[in-house]
Design brief:
By secondary structure, the protein is of the alpha+beta class. The protein has helices at about 5-30, 70-75; strands at about 50-55, 65, 90-95, 105, 110-115, 120-130, 140, 150-160, 165, 170-175, 185-190, 195-200, 210-220, 235-245. The chain is about 10% helix and about 30% strand. Strands 1, 5, 7, 8, 9 and 13 form a six-stranded mixed sheet that branches. Strands 2-3-4 form a three-stranded antiparallel sheet, with no helix packed on it. A three-stranded antiparallel sheet has the order 10-6-14, with no helix packed on it.
Amino acid sequence: MGLKFRRFLISNLAAVMVMVSPISAVAEELGEGNETGVGEVEGSVNTDIYKVILPTVGNSAFDFIIDPQGLINKTNGAAYDGKTFEENSTLFFKRMDGNAGVDYSSTSDVIKITNMGSNAIDVSLHISILPESLAGIQLSGDREFRDDTSASIYMALIDGENVVPIGPDGVTMDVTVAAAPEEAYEYGYDSEQGEYTYQLKEDQHGIEFGSYSFQLTGAANGNGDWSQLTGAKPQITVSWRIVSKEGE
């Protein structure tokens, strides 16, 4: 191989190396990679809270005395150890709530259902008088007993807006009671259990909860002949059903 050819080969190799070197430098600067992030649910609380305050009703809350001739008031309650009775009344419920001003009145104690839950509730109230317990006493829809000379009683549901006489088929009242206001509840964190909470505030001052209240009221017809009915014991039944309107 001649000297001139060797010089040419060396010169070309050097040129190739010069051309390749920048490409190698660029390849060293490129790279690949990835990172993984993990999500975590902070927590979840149940905001559907069912809390209804029901009345404490004794066995005698709806017991009543029928006095069509007004004998109790005419004798100043002599048969009842001086207990006080509403004047000019002919049917009496024993009052135990202290709101009547007398021991017996023509209306019963107030029965109140209060909704402290986070959802509205439907209240279905049904009141009826057992037909066979009337023993000949008639039911009247007229408290004044106009043109009525039968031995009859008037009994009705009153709730502040409605006065509904109770007939042979009874009476049903369906109402919806609103949920507790949002400010009645608060979120919290239970460090011992390590979980979030949603519950009624301890301080409920100034918070108004929805409620439904009702009473019974009645009278007896003094124009009827009651001589054969002194042993009658009409039986009245008051029942209610409450259902939460969850998600509304």
